[in-house]
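#struct-pred

JT: dropping the chains for the assembly here, can someone run the whole complex?
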Amino acid sequence: MRTPAANAQLALLLEVAGTPKPGNVDRRRDLEDLRFEHFLAGAVGARDGLEMAANGGAVGAAFERAVAGMAGQRGGNTQFGSLLLLVPLVRAAREELSAPVVEAVCEDTTVADAANFYRAFDHVDVFVDDPPADMEPLDVRRGSDAVPAVEDRGLTLLDIMSRSVPGDDVAREWIEGFERSFRAAERLAAADGPLGDRTAAVFLAELAERPDTLVANRSGEAVAQEVADRAAELVERDALETDPDAVEAFAEELVARGVNPGTTADIAAAGLFVALEREAIDV
Amino acid sequence: MRTPAANAQLALLLEVAGTPKPGNVDRRRDLEDLRFEHFLAGAVGARDGLEMAANGGAVGAAFERAVAGMAGQRGGNTQFGSLLLLVPLVRAAREELSAPVVEAVCEDTTVADAANFYRAFDHVDVFVDDPPADMEPLDVRRGSDAVPAVEDRGLTLLDIMSRSVPGDDVAREWIEGFERSFRAAERLAAADGPLGDRTAAVFLAELAERPDTLVANRSGEAVAQEVADRAAELVERDALETDPDAVEAFAEELVARGVNPGTTADIAAAGLFVALEREAIDV
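RK: done, full complex below.
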């Protein structure tokens, strides 16, 4: 029986091992400067912060600790978004891993949690879009320099997340009761075969359903929509089963184009955690 | 800066990710009932026991805890031998990671450590050969049932290890100052390229130098010698660089024959830990 922190760490590892995951690092693919080993080291480093969350630590402090540990490798940002989902889920698992409990965890976040969320950006470069002009003092890329502005405005971490929607589907999970994370867990449980294959299937299904917001922010909404449409076409004809070469080719093409659906990977990691905790999947 | 426990966990993950590792699970290969995901879960589960060792816990108790956690997956024995090397190395790293200090850690083991070593066999089936008749009461496969015999004879864990040599090259490390583990670390530091490639190179070099004792115990000494000779031939002509297909073919052939050089993988994991701790390699 694994603890919630151990299951969260395992979810990070199973996520990166799942293959094919078009555009992302997976068991078969590295990017040029971001390799499989960086994700392994990121998962190792995140453990202490996940333990803090499991032991009832504040969400913001646990998140900052997890990110600081995750960032102790040379690949850069590997699992920032995944940890932003996993920390409240692990915190909820202390009591019960359900949508209402994790929503309550998010609602209970404070200004101090928001401040620690900003401090987490000091540890690693995270790709985010420019904020609107009136939000410039709250630009997350300012990291801890933005903390006074956060405190002046009295914003909680949930307030920050709600200001990031739409446009960031990790933040959207905080607002929408982790809807996609729980659905991904159900999909993992319903899928067949080894976990690496199930993870690939759930990744592709989630990629098909909503344009990836990291892709949209980096490459534009048209590219994000194109990627979702092509994933939908592959899902529609059950290509992972009937035409795996087509999915591999799609995976290679996205890597070559530098299109990395990182938000969808974050949802998959959260889904893996929920499914492991509920013993809906097993390793 | 990762802690020794985190580096030991990362060493387990980097070891299984290294590819090609002829005959073993690696980033590209699963065995029929033993898959990559089982090694990921084994490394996750081992963390608490590794933390115990890092915090100064007794070697036997930390090892038993690490094995109990490692065994919490359905693949069976994934990293028993690796942990038998890593636990004393992590314990030594509290003071200094050198041959004399880890030898002192091993010399300081007690009868209680030996008893906990036997208890670790209750958690997982480990392949070992039949003992000589006078050693039957000390057969490790008896697990905790052998503890009274261990206590009657007043054997320490180092005594048990010295009785397993020759025949078990994990135990031999305990007797020989972790000679191969430290050498593997030097080889990792001297190698080029991404860590997965370096791990493969060091694995092949170690496989070439001594017949793998797990292979010898399972398939006979002639097979172990044949595998070592063929590895030596590949090393001799620098096949990982000049003829990678030949190494891949050797890897597939050993998997097909059920020949799994697990002892050599344990040495590689120990070498990865030492190299990480000394910052001779970086992720």
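JT: nice. Residues 4-277 of chain B form a domain with the Triphosphoribosyl-dephospho-CoA protein fold (CATH 1.10.4200.10). The two ends of chain B are 11 Å apart (CA to CA).
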